[in-house]
Specification:
single chain; alpha+beta; two-stranded antiparallel ribbon; GNAT_dom; GNAT family N-acetyltransferase; Acyl_CoA_acyltransferase
Length: about 190
């Protein structure tokens, strides 16, 4: 089941994010800031996937995936963005921050359903397209694959995008450890 992310699920989202992407990927402070950047016109662009094995949905339900999305006009453009190659203006571009699915739940379409839910929300907010930095080293390059299948177009490759020297974070990449050299694929989906 796909539903909006609300604060009672923050701890599960943090735990799943750190398990899948590496320790230090999310914490309560960072998730609270991200959460605020995804709400615009009282529309929440963040979503969670709850296990189909859960009979009753409550705060104890098991989160098997989540999608964090920044609303257009509410996120910082940094050196890893190439707005001169985007098909829409910066003010009309949302940012797909993170799509995460638990290992045992991958390949079931959860990531795609989370993305579609976020696209529907940001379109209601007024966005015309969305950009993301996809993790090229994801298992079987699945991040780039599912985003391409959803209509994503490659804009630019950014080697070592998440290296700790760029943002002084405590992030520990699940592949590289504390010296991440994974490549980010800057990709855009235009919302026809």
């Amino acid at each position: 089941m796909i539903r909006n992310l609300t604060p009672e699920y923050f701890q599960q989202v943090i735990e799943l994010g750190n398990l899948v992407h590496g320790e230090g990927y999310l914490n309560l402070d960072s998730l609270e800031k991200i959460y605020q950047m995804g709400i615009k016109n009282n529309i929440n662009a963040h979503f969670i996937a709850i296990s189909d094995e859960t009979s009753q949905i409550d705060s104890q339900s098991t989160i098997v995936g989540f999608r964090l999305t920044y609303s257009a006009g509410k996120w910082p453009i940094d050196q890893w963005c190439t707005p001169d190659k985007w098909p829409v203006s910066v003010e009309d571009m949302c940012y797909f921050k993170c799509n995460t699915v638990a290992e045992g739940q991958r390949g079931k379409g959860i990531g795609s359903r989370l993305l579609q839910a976020s696209i529907a929300a940001v379109k209601q907010q007024g966005a015309k397209a969305g950009v993301s930095h996809l993790w090229q080293q994801s298992p079987n390059n699945s991040a780039v694959g599912y985003f391409t299948h959803a209509g994503g177009e490659l804009i630019k490759l950014h080697p070592s995008r998440w290296n700790q020297r760029h943002d002084n974070s405590d992030y520990l990449c699940v592949i590289c450890g504390d010296d991440c050299h994974c490549t980010a694929c800057e990709m855009v989906i235009e919302f026809g």
